[in-house]
Amino acid sequence: GRMKRLRRHGHESQRDRLKQELFQFNKTVEHGFPHQPSALGYSPSLQLLAIGTRSGAIKLYGAPGVEFMGLHDENAAVTQVHFLPRTVVCSVLFFFLPKSLTAVLAHSSGELLLLGTEGGHVFIADVLSHSFLPLVYPYTPVSSSVPNDYIGRRNLEHVEALQENPVNPNQVVIGYGRGLMVIWDLKKRCAVQHIPATQQLESVWWTEDGSYILSSHSDGSYCRWMVGEEDMNEEEEKSDIPYGEQKKLPPFLVFSGGMPRASYGDRHCITVIHGKTHVALDFTSRIIDFFSIRPLNDDFSALVVLVEEELVAIDLQTEGWPVIQAPYLVPLHSSAITCSHHISVIPLKLWERIIAAGHLQNTHYSKKPWPITGGQNLAPDPPQRDLLLTGHEDGTVHFWDASGVCLYPLYKLSTAGVFHTDADPNDNMNQGTEGEWPPFRKVGCFDPYSDDPRLGIQKIHLCKYSGYLTVAGTAGQILVLELNDEAAEQTVEAKVVDLLQGQEGFRWKGHTQLDVREEPVLFPPGFQPFALVQCQPPAVVTALTLHSEWKLVAFGTSHGFGVYDYQQKNSVLIKCTLNPSDQLAMEGPLSRVKSIKKSLRQSFRRIRRSRVSLRKHHANNAAKLHDANARLEAELAEMELAPVQRKIEARSSDDSFTGLVRMLYFADTFLSDSSHHTPSLWAGTNGGCVFAYMLRFPPVEHRADEPVTAHPAKEIQLMHRAPVVGIVVLDGRGTPLPEPLEVAHDLARSPDMQGSHHLLVISEEQFKVFTLPKVSAKMKLKLTAVDGSRVRRVGVAWFGSSRSEDYGENGLLVLTNQGDVHVVSLPAVKMQVHYPCIRREDVSGIASCVFTKHGQGFYLISPSEFERFSLSTRHLVEPRCLVEPPPQSGTSTQHRPRPAYRYAHSEMLFYYGSYYILTVFMRLSSLPRNASQDGGHDAGKVFFRGL
């Protein structure tokens, strides 16, 4: 007995070491566009872009692959971001301000910060000495030089702007909200000139030669003021209204706003005027900030604009000022994301064909490279080519290069052309109306409006070997598409499939189906539809899979499932799963699910009505109030998480939605006997039922004309009736069956057909293994009974060892409703590791999660951002980059730190909220971690702690 215990202990310790070599949890990088951006900063010397958000995040971007992130632990908005140009000794500085901060100037010396407040005061912070003093109390010295019409109103309002003279660093202009501007000499500590503008001040800019100050005002005008040396006299105001009477304009002028309020007050515009060229760039979301890029001793090359939903760079050196395609910060939510699908290890030929089709869609972009080039990307080239496909509300599918740190757009497929919609096919976002004034030009790709919500893509499946793609939508439409390198004109005929199978007593109350175009449609190069299945009723498609070797597509809705032969364009199987009590399945997607918010709202209304009536009939309604409160408590209790160690209770067969199809799976396995394997289809429902159908194919020479048939083979009803979320068949070696055509391309071993196969059924509550073909239970792993959680997402993944290139294991990736990720071993079905990943309150994040075949995952942390994570020690995509300071004149290079600890000799400055300012000496390097480091980490992130 002692020897047995020792052997068991030795095996467990060996297994623990193996787990450390296989599994490690890391959140690695955030893809997409920051949610709710609130500030923009740019360092011309470092060539870095900084974006602050309302949630307290700071994100820095340089050349593609150079990314850094800082996150404040308080949910405070970043209102401004500035870079200090020289080395700062301190690590973190906090300055407490008596007034709310309204303006910041990072002085070119790198030693001073000028801070303007809402009370009209200006403070100065010496960054090197950590001192913080008032620079000037403006009312005392400045008021003596203020003109008479200002004397009667002492309140000059807040400090709106602070700008440094580009030729004389000792001079700064202080702009006040009421319009007054004061040029202040820092060395002499006195005002050298005042500029008494009469309109409310919006912004101030000092021209490069220091001879003029430009001010913009609330009435849509801007003014030019000549700067005179020691001249205290008022300079004549020169006012221009660019969308009013035309006067002589500066050689290059860029401004936001200024539109006539009555006609265009709702437009989000930036106007660019250069000589005779005048364009109003029209964005679809609110403008946050912008800056221009001007290489040394050269003309302006680009204009970079941050709006609420995207970042746009305009090429100012190419005729027509086209947009420069961004390598990062692309708005994933140009239309709302409705589903995602990841494909690993894309063959080179398919990859090149997709890129070629995408290039034809991008001819309107500038040929110039991305203008922000700071830092060095130290990451090696990705070992494989990965695709992330996102389906969208407007019926589009976006193809993204997910191989590295940058989620780069490759190609966009639109399915709207197959159907009749309200969209104008000739609508061009980049063309304005001839002769229109103001000369608007639509810019950017963010378009929050969908022509028809029925177009929304709900499921995607791509075969990377054959180039076949199938997508399914909100109104029961399933399209089968093939990659074509040439444009083609063709008619797509719809095959209507009645999933109710003529059952009486059911009437669909949801949306109607989309109308298919009867005339031929010209499809551009790329994925082109050649087959269309229309489900009746036209409910949301809830499950979809494609077998390109068999030329079959399987689809499911809340009413049943079917199989379609896209070679012969015929139905192979139609099965209705609707329970007689499933009346909610006939209501449609907008009304069939009672939301938590609606449930709570109705409960509070019942309480409110009870309280109102209580005043009139106190005695009669006391019981009603008690009942309403009891109902509310019951509904809240239903929302609570299940307690630990609860018993799995069998669900009633009349639960709503029991017939909804959750899972479809093709497999070549043993169904009738243990000596003959056959193609099969497996379907799992919301009521814990698994259907198995045997598929029979004609001989190869008659495949095009003789029908494929489907025959019922097995039906399994799980005792606890929990929804089936995954089905996997394991071969004789305990390995999941390979993908279609994977063996034919020599990318997988042929499955073992000698030993017995096993069926793994994953429900929301447990994992259960059955032997095939007898379908007798062999083993199970309970999840809900142990910790109260439920399975929300599951996927098969391969985990390679970090120590041995030759060793790896298959496992199940599992995400629960608690936001935890688990790895379950195969074929033993034992829990290996688990990590907290997503906040359990983040229901949309959990619902959006998608796993990869190599142990990584993506989930939405906002409508516009994916968080990427990994559970594999071998497959890890994270920023590995470095930013080095430009050489400073008069600075010795021999005292630079060693390469492993290099810091950028430039600081990032930002502030949160109203009462303090925070400067951070940020380590701008994201280098490979120490091999001895254990546990998870967030790569490339720095968390800033507040007071």
TrEMBL record:
Spans through the membrane: none
GO molecular function, one term: myosin II binding
Keywords: Coiled coil, Exocytosis, Repeat, WD repeat
Start and end residues of each Lethal giant larvae homologue domain: 247-322
Superkingdom assignment: Eukaryota
Cellular component per GO, a single term: plasma membrane
Pfam (any one): LLGL
InterPro entries noted in UniProt: Lethal2_giant, LLGL2, WD40/YVTN_repeat-like_dom_sf, WD40_repeat_dom_sf
GO biological process: cortical actin cytoskeleton organization; establishment of spindle orientation; exocytosis; Golgi to plasma membrane transport; regulation of establishment or maintenance of cell polarity; regulation of Notch signaling pathway
UniProt KW Cell division keyword: no
Sections of the chain in a coiled coil: 615-642
Family under the similarity heading: Belongs to the WD repeat L(2)GL family.
Identification of the protein by name: LLGL scribble cell polarity complex component 2
Species in which this protein is naturally found: Mastacembelus armatus (zig-zag eel)
Origin organism lineage: Eukaryota, Metazoa, Chordata, Craniata, Vertebrata
